[in-house]
Amino acid sequence: MKSYPPETAYFCLFLVSLWLVGTIFEELARCRLLGELLVGMLFGNLGVGTLLPSDKTAIILCGEIGILAIIFDAGMATELGRIRKAALRGTLIAVFGTVVPVATGFGFVYALLKTNALPGASIRETGSIVVEALASGAALGSTSIACAVSLMKNKGLLETPVGTLITTAAMIDDVISLVLLGIVASIGASKSDSGTTTDIGAMTVLQPILASLGIIFVGLLGCTTIAKFVARRTRNQAVELQDFAEVALEGGARNGHKDLNTECGDSGARREQVAGGYIKKQARLFHRAFAPSIKLAAMVLVGIGYSILAEYLGSSRLLGAFVAGVFFSPLTSFTQVYKEQVTDILLPALSAVFFATIGFAIPLTKIFSPILFGWGFLYAVIASLSKLITCLLVPISNKSVSRAVDDQRPRAKERWLVGTAMIARGELGLLMVQQALLQGVLSEAAMVVTTWSIILCTLVGVSALSFVMRTR
């Protein structure tokens, strides 16, 4: 008698746990990814080979597809028209909100590694410590736009000027973080080839920056061109529709005075009209049946192709996926198909698997170490304050200093909205930690401290933003 394979039951339990725990964290903490991360930690560390197969290649591959789909979807949601309205101020907040956390994170982790304050960390050369501190600081430079958007959407703040400013700053922030991810990956590849990090040249850093700028420029140029084409086509269709209505009205007036014989027309002409109408009807049916699949296939091919190109040039494949999503953002019919067939159906499952695969790499024996948690808590405090100070870049008043105090108070709260919305990290920070660990750039001890900081910052950011919105 054949026995039921336990791996199948355990994998079903894994999927159900992802959904259930993710839903609980979504309702309680407004941060689903933390629950999915916890499930990945438990299933990835307890009984490897029984709770989950020892070879998790297929699961990790699904996770990789999931993060590409998440980043592509974020690019499609980017509205260049809204971003232009707050581009200058949003760019300033994003740059300031990335440079300061990266610098403070670099200094904090560098001090920990230099003084051997992390348990289990071996003595390393200065070059290796610098790269490890840079990778950790870069992970804390990102912002979780998903948390901010979901909370503001529930409160009706997403379409307001402050909502536009926050989303613009967070998007630009994530683009800068994606460029930093390319630099970290380039450094990791250089280390893998040479076996050391002391011989890293200037091109190791410059190549991903130049490649990323090129990828962004080409994508924005294509997006702008498509947006102009769509706008021109919409105007032409409106003019044609108006002309058709005018001709139809004139024709109806003339036909009212025609006799019955003229109205009947030639039977041969009628047959041609019927045949032409049948062909057009079949063409419309064919287009309606296969157009969504063709559009989705085109989006997948362009997204994967641009990701491969970005990685080949020395940038990040995620940046390529994001820019490819921006490229399709003006095409409403394409984005609607993607939303219906991927965002609403496949994306929740794929993203859950991705965050679980990050949990696979977190060792349970170290994650609950009191010393590492303590350093992670202190790191989270520093990282939170380094993002909160972006509120100083939000102007209190657009008018003169003599503006009434009562009229300035809501503007002052907008500062707190921006500052607290930037605190939460999320999927991109965790991804950068995972990539740095896989590249051999980040040690396990530094990875645990950085992960704790990201988790705590996310919880603090979501709670603080919710509090500010309630008191608004």
From TrEMBL:
Q: Which InterPro entries does the entry mention?
A: Cation/H_exchanger_TM, Na+/solute_symporter_sf
Q: Where is the Cation/H+ exchanger transmembrane domain?
A: 23-236, 275-469
Subcellular location(s) per record: Membrane
Q: Name one GO biological process term.
A: sodium ion transport
Superkingdom in the source lineage: Eukaryota
Q: What is this protein called?
A: Cation/H+ exchanger transmembrane domain-containing protein
Keywords from the named record: Antiport, Ion transport, Membrane, Sodium, Sodium transport, Transmembrane, Transmembrane helix, Transport
Q: TM spans, by residue?
A: 6-26, 33-52, 58-78, 90-113, 133-152, 164-189, 209-231, 289-312, 318-338, 345-365, 371-396, 416-433, 445-468
Give the PANTHER family listed for this entry: NAPA-TYPE SODIUM/HYDROGEN ANTIPORTER (PTHR43562), SODIUM ION_PROTON EXCHANGER (EUROFUNG) (PTHR43562:SF3)
**Keyword hit for Transmembrane helix:** yes
Give the originating organism: Dissophora globulifera
A GO cellular-component term linked to this record: membrane
What GO molecular function terms would the record report?
antiporter activity
Keyword Transport in the entry? The reply is: yes
What single Pfam family name could you report for this chain, choosing any that match? Na_H_Exchanger
Topology term for the membrane: Multi-pass membrane protein
